[in-house]
Design goal:
Elements (H helix, E strand, L loop, with lengths): L16 E5 L3 H13 L3 E5 L2 H10 L4 E5 L7 H10 L6 E5 L3 H4 L9 E5 L4 H14 L1
Parallel strand pairs: 1-2, 1-3, 3-4, 4-5
Helix pairs in contact: 2-3
Amino acid sequence: MGADETTAAGDNTQPLKVLCVDDNDMVLKALVRLLRSMGCVVTSATTGEQAWHALQAAAHDLLLTDHDLPGMSGTELAVKIRHHGMRLPIIVMSGAPAWQVGLDEAQVPNAAYLEKPFGSVEMVRTFHQLQGRR
């Protein structure tokens, strides 16, 4: 990344630390590749439990999680995160319609739903919208 380029976070000083969660290996690899191409530092997980442990082990700037995960869903993970006082922005993604995901703004503030498939521009726009809500 050149001196004049910016990261997904919108600045050129610190890369965005993203925890990316999806149980589909091909989707996860594609998302990690996309996020890294945007200058992000990416940690990946394939289950909600793995993601929960990663969030407890290190600070992250953004959680990008699939909704349909084995065990704990991405939405359940988001609720758990808020219940424990973590305030990072959360993007829950799914191929299902938003109403099926059940992401409740009252339970999970500073979160958004992103319907698959999506592109990097839509993901960055969603993150910036979340940043503006703080």
